[in-house]
Amino acid sequence: MNRSAQLLAVLAVAAALMSTTGCNMLKARDQLNRGVQAYKGGYPEKAIEHFKNAVSLDDKLQVAKLYLATAYTSQYVPGAETPENLRMAQQAVEQYKAVLVDEPQNSTSLKGLAFLYMQMKRFDEARDFYKKSISADPNDPATYYSVGVLDWTAVYKTANRKRALKSTTK
Q: If you average pLDDT over residues 64-89, what whole number do you get?
């Protein structure tokens, strides 16, 4: 095979790969849009499927991972310790953390993790992620407020325990 034929073959393969990649990116964005529509329409289960499809078609589409994590979080019921409920929370955590792999300072993902951990009553982890979020976006007052709520909760729990111990020892 002569050199120009080899070059032509390589270019044809490269063009085919690029068109497939471009096609997948368009399909991923379509799935993302369908997921947003389903979520807004009150169908979070359908939204989750669309967002999962978007992520599988384009793993670099961070917004799809964030929306998927948000959809999982919306399905989590604080205090319900069923395996399905805990799986929803774990899947949300995985998606938020997947965003942080490529964007460690993504404040939306950091705040999402912090909020979810707070809902799960994993207060130390929630505080850690809120503090990371403050480092990523120091101008967000809501994050400072959330750290204050966590600190107040910790002090309140300690004070109640002490009161309970005093009342039982009298």
A: 96
Residue 18 is predicted with a pLDDT of 46
Name the CATH topology of 104-170: 1.25.40
Task: Report CA-CA distances (Å) from 43 to 15, 48, 91, 169.
Answer: 38, 9, 18, 53
Q: What is the DSSP string of the chain?
A: --HHHHHHHHHHHHHHHHHHHHHHHHHHHHHHHHHHHHHHTT-HHHHHHHHHHHHHH-TT-HHHHHHHHHHHHHH--TT---HHHHHHHHHHHHHHHHHHHH-TT-HHHHHHHHHHHHHTT-HHHHHHHHHHHHHH-TT-HHHHHHHHHHHHHHHHHHHHHHHHHHHHH-
Contact 106, 100 (CB under 8 A): yes
Helix 123-136 × helix 141-169 angle, to 10°: 160
Measured in Å, how far apart are the chain's first and last C-alpha atoms?
97
- Is 77 within 8 Å of 64 (Cβ atoms)? no
Choice between 168 and 11, residue whose per-residue pLDDT is larger: 168
CA–CA gap between residue 32 and residue 20 (Å, rounded): 18
